[in-house]
Protein 1
Amino acid sequence: MKTLMRIALRLYPTPWRRRYGNEVRQLIDDGHASPFDLADLVAHAPLAATVRGELSTVKSHLATHPTRVAVVALAIVLPTAVLVVVSVLKYVLGVPGPFDSIEPGATPFVTHPIGETVLILAPYVAFGLAVVPFTRLRVGWTEGRLAARAEASVPLTSLVVGVMSAALIVVMAIYWIAENL
Amino acid sequence: MSNDRRRGADPSLLILISLAAGPRHGHAMLLDVAAFAGQRLGPGTLYGAIERLEQDGLIEALPEVERRTPYRLTSNGSTYLAGRLDGLQNLARIGRSRMSA
């Protein structure tokens, strides 16, 4: 833990470390080297504050255009949704028509490692775009315990895309478990 | 709302109160704050607050003793702390009187 904390100190700018680095290192040697202390040191680094600020700006920007963001998220997730639906129709419900009609065109993309990765990640990206800008997650230490609190106020269009993406994630997880376990 | 949030103590104020009893280094400040306020501060919080207080001229570093740098309140810091505590006392008095009304 002490080593991790010394590494975490590098997140602070050089002038700051010149001024306070030795004092923080002494504090670490004095026994302030718990996971709480590490999290506190990382969370207060100016770099962490900058990253948090940038993410917050992006999140606010996305939240001000919910319909556009939902449409983009839908476009991202649509190919995966189509593939999952036609696969379920063929292999679960015994309706092969839609799957067989798109299979020749889809096979080169689906079997390519990059194409496969894009299709698998698409629901996660779509879910993140559609839902995350409208959620607020607060995580912190309260009296030695990790406390988390989530709030969400998601517009209907984003909610539809979010639920659809989450459903795809679940279906793909079930498929993966059935195939591999 | 957690007890921590209810206490809502500002780390800078806790540091100033700790230094009001005399010069202390970082480790001693953390132990003192934990003892009198029941609040655990991390190193990032502590030195973030120390940096701001130094920049505002409310505390100053003393020469290093055994690899530890003690800090003490400046005269501006004492005046500022007295004002903050008066303000808090006033708020507490108003709050209590309204609760008992």
Protein 2
Amino acid sequence: MLRTFHVAVREFISTALTRGFIFGVFVLPVMIFFIAIAAKAIIGDGPKLSGTLLIADMTTGQQIAPLIEARFDPAKQEAAAKEKIAKARQMAKDKVKELGLPEEATEALNNPMAQQALEGAMAGPMIIARRIEPGADIEKLKDSLKPSERKSLSDKGQSEAGAQASPVALVVVNDSALKADASGQFGGYELFTIPKLDFQIQGDISSTVSQSVIDARIAGSDLKDQAARIRAMLARPAADVKSMTNEGAKSSAGDISMLLPVAFMLLLWISTFTAGQYLLTTTIEEKSSRVMEVVLSAVSPMQLMVGKILGQMGVASVLMLVYLGAGVGSLAVFSFMHLIDPASIALLLVYFFIAFFLIACMMAAIGSAVTDLREAQSLMTPVMLVMFIPLMLWMPISRNPNGMFATVCSFIPPISPFVMVIRIPAAAGSVPVPIWQIALSIAVGLASVVVACWAAAKIFRIGVLMYGKPPSVGTLIKWIRMA
Amino acid sequence: MVTMPPSTQPAISIRNVRKTFGPKVAVTNMDLTVDTGSTVAFLGPNGAGKTTTIRMIMSIIFPDHGELSVLGKKSAVESKDRIGYLPEERGVYKKMKVGAFLAYMARLKGLPDRQIKGLVSDWLAKVGLSDCEKKKCEELSKGMQQKVGFVAAILHNPDLVILDEPFSGLDPVNASLMRHLVDEMKRAGKTILFSTHVMAHAEALCDHVLMIHKGDKVLDESMDSIRSKLDPRTVLVEPLVKTRVADGTVASLALLVTAQRLSEIRDIERVVPSIRQGGTLEVTVAEGTDTQEMMRTIAAAVPIRRLELRRVSLEDIFISLVGADGVDVGDDEDEGGDVREAAEGGVKGSIVGE
């Protein structure tokens, strides 16, 4: 009907063509993206700490210190970082070529911001290893790592060079680390660090020292000719994980395929609830600004409600399509498209409409019954409690998509669409959700939409002109039962 | 303006309609008819059921039982485009521009797009809001929003206009502008039903009065018959007092002396002095007395400056019908009785002094 259409158009325009909405839909994700990049650059900068690693080599003949020093050679470190950056660039270029994007796309890597981010992410910390002369006071060196000592050092106006020289860790290696005891066991070594040393740097230091200790052990043994072989044998074997899809072996995307069900559910939840919230607010606004009856002089309550719901469906669809498009697009960029079954997207859209109408009917009914947002809260609480179930239980459902719990939840009306969009992608890899369950859940969904619309229309018709005391849930049920 | 074709069918007819809200009876078995082309004032105290009745006429709410017909249709839904309705609770979309809001309302009322633009600016010019077309409704003052609401109700040139308290919240200038617009519609042959608390507006505009009280119809008569039926029993006497104005005390004293003299005349029931109105006496004549004869008697008894037979105003009728009872909600007495008897009860004991 034409009037319903006019109402829907107004509803859509007044919601979607506002600065707030456009900002929320388009600008916010872009901003989050940029913040993520910036955050990554900042995190990349984080461990870029420079300082000195003090080596107290107590072994006979001081075999360890030179090995560690060699590994922390500044020139070598710089070269390694440069190589990493170059590698990352090459990877990006290859990707561009593979996707058939224009060559200019790689130009983006040359802009200063990208350059900085790349360097920040790739460049490691600069650590200089310094050997302590034997006989030096170990306790005094330990003290030099204390914050109070370091502070006084910088207070003395030490320049950057001084800061670089300031100790960040002290490694004490004893003979026991290199010489096996009677049972053939080697001892360890001590590592003292400044408090709150970045775990990455600490890991770097300890693995480097450990490597050096192993090297020294080998060098000191009768197997020293075989050093290269032993080291090769000690290397942890890397697993090449491939998942067998119908299209053949594909690189496994373990984490991403785990995230797909929750991504589907969140997409559904956010798009339907955002539009539902808007519906609630606009209905309350129409009531509190008393424009409701003016509009009702031209359209019937039913036309108004249907128009408003359809208008907000437009809003929800915009949200859905924008975010779904962005999601699918980014999956395509990283060539994970095979993870998404077109059928599951089609089903997502079917469940989207069911979920939207259920939520919209609830919101329209609540919005029509109250006079301001505060009053709506008390009626919203039971709705929100039910609707948080899929948010809280996505984990067990997605891990056991065909389990009893998931199956039962698939047929409970307000949450069934959300449960189904978790189950379908989650089960796609193993045993797909049986067709009859999908069909039944859609049937249950459609039936509940009909019931919800009918009940909402009853409440709406009475509620829109009710002012004063906000009705309780019991009153709403009474309204539904009224002729 | 298009003139309505003559029709014998009533514009609104309500038969035996009842509406309750829970335990509260809003409208009790109401019968009423609004003839096509008439202008009807719909009166009643607050909470009498006016708005409920109007909402039922508009099919916004539905009666528990009874029959309704609006413009020959069973429900106003079928003829909404021919009805202009200004609800008592009228608002605007605060964030919408005035022009866009009116265009939206016009579209909802089924006007074709090509007509709307011109119509909206014409109407805004008519109510003096031409410069507000591009402003948001929230930027307008309350009175301006009222006018926008009024335009929204009638811009589609409806045959039947229902206005719920159309003049409330307007300053005298704007109220008279609205009155002028209503009068214009009346002359164009529209059927108009409007509720109001301002009796002067009702008296000036309507040719028929419907009054309800506690959900019941208590008056349903043409303005002319009301005026003729209630024969006037109040005579205004302004005594000729030489020392008036100069000394208020002397003036009041003289007035009281005159009042005392008048009250001694047979068949004069009550004399109420009123200094505020320039020192006049309201003389109520006993029922069944010839007022013409009485006026002559008064003129002979005291020196007078002005002697006037006061016409019964709608306000008097209103007060007489709902009276003090309109305030006292607990009273369940039947109000449909003799108008005159009620009138006595209503005005009793109201000595107007300084």
